[in-house]
Amino acid sequence: MIVSANLKTNLTRATTDKYLEELNKFLNDTSSSQEVIVFPAMTSLNKQNGSVIVGTQNAYATRNGAFTGEIGLEQLEEFGIKTILIGHSERRHILGESQEELVKKFNFYKELGFKIVYCVGEPLEVRKAGDEDMMKYISAQYKGIDTTYKNLIIAYEPVWAIGTGLTPTLEDIQKIHTELKEKSSAPLLYGGSVKVANAKDVLAVKNVDGILVGSAALKVEDFCSMCEDAQKLEQ
Ligand code: PGA
């Protein structure tokens, strides 16, 4: 399974290093065979040893150049980063990234062979409009994306469930994941208010291949416990 943590705008370089050290130690001590990915804040990217895959929460579709406030391939290469999160709802809705821009970014990093965790998910008003509208909305987020790309991981994250403590029912997660699996056979993660108390149940849902965890991953011991849940389910 794939267990991933999106640390967003939290922790510093020093506390992230400590976090990754503890996480790597835990995975090693427990002989974990899970694929564990962590997306730290950009200033916390650093060279890593250990089994944890470190990815960037964002990067511009460029090697380098005049893109104030952005980083490109050159900055990622310094730390050996080959994994990127694209299409997170906070980038779509707060930073205003369009589908067109995301596709450009996707294609740029795909050409370089990056592992891409690509996020999709609907806001509350769309969910309230019913299943048909919701699937139409999510389908539009697949537009232009190569769903057969071999290093693709998709994360379904309903916007209304992110950071709110609200989650869809397990039945709803299974239903949506089953439909999304028809669009792409890439591993499909669920994200949105996953925490220690519900990770095991979410991971056990059919067609859920892993989780993407935000706030509940900030404490390393909690994230370790979710990695352990995934390991137990596979045994
Ligand atoms: P959350 O965030 O776990 O805090 O809801 C998930 C995400 O944004 O990836």
Task: Explain how this protein is built.
- There is one protein chain.
- Helix 7 links the parallel strand 6 and strand 7.
- Strands 3-2-1-8-7-6-5-4 form an 8-stranded parallel beta sheet, with helices on one face.
- It is of the alpha/beta class and 235 residues long.
- The model has no long low-confidence stretch (mean pLDDT 97).
- The radius of gyration is 17 Å and the shape is globular.
- The protein has 9 helices and 8 strands.
- 40% of the residues lie in helices and 15% in strands.
- The chain has a single domain, classed as Aldolase class I (TIM Barrel, Alpha-Beta Barrel), CATH 3.20.20.
- The structure holds 2-phosphoglycolic acid.
- 2-phosphoglycolic acid (PGA) binds next to strand 8.
- The site of 2-phosphoglycolic acid has 13 residues, from strand 8.
List keywords for this structure.
single chain; 235 residues; alpha/beta; TIM Barrel; eight-stranded parallel sheet; 9 helices; binds 2-phosphoglycolic acid
